[in-house]
């Protein structure tokens, strides 16, 4: 198992390095000099030369990359163009809010979607199965920004049950939780249907396997057959899917953060792109990429923990 | 004798898209306490349905519509699901067909076995573990306490089936059901499992029912036999009665078809002509009337009565009741085609010279860094074969013997590491595909799994003309070509419009044969041409292959683990073990006398469909080692009964014995 973890970690590091190379080259591919863009058309040649030297742009490309990579690894993501604050600190302030939203959204989707999928698979073609089927496809099909706006209008504006804007008072966890409900609902809803469909399909397949019949032939109770024998096998592809889904969540969190005016990395990237504050965009992308790779790694480790067969390959 | 289980008039229907299939109709038989009963039948006979009816685990679309299953004085069919669950795994247990798929992949054996003991509340976890380890030891798994924490994928095939038997016997059931317990295993493993089952039955005095299509297994293991055909019991009796004096024409025909029973090499293998009746509307008269050589009008209109024989066995046949006179049937076997004159001095069509195929098991990088050859396993080692036009060469081996890899390498589907493949005298190994493609017209492959190798979305017509399209042959009329090929393989023309899932096993095979022959090849490589076919159909395919060979002068390279079959169709045989040929020579000679101990154990290890010819010896010990752990010295040394010190030191070279035989053994059998 430890050998497997080491291999996976090495692979994750390689992926992060590749992402850094791509990000770095993309920036060089954009037409125009970053210094003239940053300083605007009225910049004096002296100012341009000063900033070029400050940003290492007078160095060869590979030196620039080495400096950049070293900075990223040591946690230096550059400075905000306008305020001069450290990007790492700015992103660090926001990432907590985003993580909370993502975990809450995926969390309720998992808690509801997986049991629903199991139930539908255990009793296929019953009314329960059909209703979850229709609802699943419905929630997958409806764009989640629409759900967000409806939820906002009905629950917050009309009924005034839940707060509409912001992330709640800092330090007041109850208030923060209240503020989390609507965005998490909107972001996670599509995933409930998605997970339910996914679990149903793989569960149905697994329930037809000979080893399930063996377990039943040994007289095990239906509950044990489903939860100890079928579910661990059926859940494996779903775990991988959830891990990869986190990447998608980062981008769908952008709209939720914009609509609900929540702080978060998504909102930060959105605002920074609007303001052409590239160091922040770049830093935030590096952080979210690392986060994504970490989640995928965790999901793979979870799969290998459940499935002894996986540990041998790779 | 007291019956432990009594099935009376059991009828089961399946709801299918084609309508209600009457899968079992009035099935009745008893199981005597402390004996082994064999339930034998071909696919579609309903033998598995009987087994799952006893367990109460029929498929959701099945419905029991009548009858009773008395077990220890209670009718299982009237019990609640909960009461039946109490019996499962406790009083009645099952050994499954394929241990690979029938054991939970994510749970260790210790966990699976503890789960089976869940009703034993009085046992502590530690005691359950102890009981499980003890049972694993009993079925011959070494170091059981350690093995208990392993998972099914860490066990070899034979060990897995042993563990399956341990799981079934863990609770000490009164009734043990075994569903094709050796079908997924190699011949040498099969012998071991048969012995294990017999020993354990004698020790525990459990009553055992073995469901199988394998007549050899039934003859060797069982005391009583029930013969089923198309959802009915046609004959029951003691094993000697069934195998020595079968009364029902179906039993007789089934026994005749078993290649293991046929001593002489006939020009043609016997078959049972015709197909299973449509069970959505079973015939009014005798179920076997359509395929029976004795059929008279009465057989088609009236159900035959049950006739009790002197030994207590039953047969359902009008001949037995005296209503129909037994007569000598007309020629059951079609006239034999004349034996082929085979020119041995003709130039060989195919030749392999010292062929080696090595699969790397680690990347080049690591090995390069350490300055050595990358590790790998030798799937094929020093294989030299020749095949002449019009000749059949059988390549025989157990799983892991490299026989399939050899076939793929000849067809340039696997790259050759060293050595040569010569086709019509030209070197063809490792050619780039664009140079090899024209040769593919002359060498065709018949694949093992006909349904897996046929696209489910294409009609038979499209499938059998596909080779013509791949090779861009436009001048021929495809429709006419399809009909010509269908006629050639005796596939009824209306089937051309069907899809593969609408074909029977034998029909799908014929499509495979037609595809292989579409381009009139000179060489056909057939990978397990009869695997998964019933014995009554298997002969048809082999006869067809023989006819086509006589007609077109084809050369066959047949890859198989099935010795009895290969015996009847091969001119020469090569036996492979761990990628190396251990013995090669004319088929007749090899079956008459074996030089290599492995060949001897294979030939003698075939279960004989004759209860009086039970194998005296215990077959080979152990299992085929992994290719990653090839023994030092002779490959076979770890299992050889006559291994001597030299065998541990040096690999025996190939050497000629007599004019036609080659062996690789230091101390060949006299």
Largest sheet of chain B: 8 strands, mixed
Share in β-strands of chain B: 15-25%
Question: Structural class, judged by helices and strands of chain B?
Answer: alpha/beta
Give the overall form of chain B.
globular
CATH class annotation of the largest domain in chain B:
Alpha Beta
How many helices of chain A? The count is 12
Most extensive contact: A-B, 21 and 28 residues
The overall pLDDT of chain A, averaged over residues, is: 84
Number of domains of chain B: 3
Extract low-pLDDT stretches of chain A: none
CATH superfamily of the largest domain in chain B: P-loop containing nucleotide triphosphate hydrolases
Cα-based radius of gyration of chain B, to the nearest Å: 26 Å
Structural account:
The complex is a heterodimer of chains A (about 325) and B (about 675). With about 325 residues, chain A is mainly alpha-helical. Chain A has 2 domains: about 70 residues, no CATH class; about 220 residues, MetI-like (MetI-like fold), CATH 1.10.3720.10. Chain A has 12 helices and no strands. Chain A is globular and about 85 Å long. Chain A starts with a helix and ends in an 8-residue tail after the last helix. Chain B has about 675 residues and is of the alpha/beta class. Chain B has 3 domains: about 240 residues, P-loop containing nucleotide triphosphate hydrolases (Rossmann fold, 3-Layer(aba) Sandwich); about 80 residues, no CATH class; about 190 residues, P-loop containing nucleotide triphosphate hydrolases (Rossmann fold), CATH 3.40.50.300. In chain B, about 30% of the residues lie in helices and about 20% in strands. Chain B has an 8-stranded mixed sheet, with helices on both faces. In chain B, strands 18-19-20-15-21-22-24-23 form an 8-stranded mixed sheet, with helices on both faces. In chain B, about 45% of the residues are buried. About 0% of the residues of chain B have low confidence. The chains are: A mainly alpha (about 325), B alpha/beta (about 675). Chains A and B meet through helix 9 and helix 10 of A and helix 2 of B.
